[in-house]
Specification:
- This protein is 91% helix and 0% strand.
- With 140 residues, the chain is mostly helical.
- The chain has one domain.
- It starts with a helix and ends with a helix.
Amino acid sequence: MAEKEINRKLRFFNVLGLILFAIFFIIPLIFFLLLSFKTGSEFGLKEISFSVVISVLATIFLLWTKTLIKRNPYLGSIIGLSVLGATQYALFFEYQGELTIIFSIIVSIIVVLYLGINFFKTLEHKSSKKETYFEDNFSK
């Protein structure tokens, strides 16, 4: 790979990582803010730091899942959906109510779209590589 292509890919991961970080920082922050308004509990440093930790872990996990999907699309998608299910279970174990349902639906849609887009892009790329390989080697 040329150095220019590597720099382009790293820049893409940085931009994508920042976008994912922002999305997964804002969503829990809004959730905790609305939860504090509804229940009358305090909103402070604990909730903000928890939102930062959630966003960092979610971003790292989704970027790792994307690289895993590029190697093995089915395994990466299964791992991504399994972790999504486990985190949704943990969320409903701790919180109940309509805010939790709305929050989990929004996060689930974002993660499933992200996984689905990467899954189908990888399958399309791999199938085009196979077709080119067979055309180059076996067509005469």
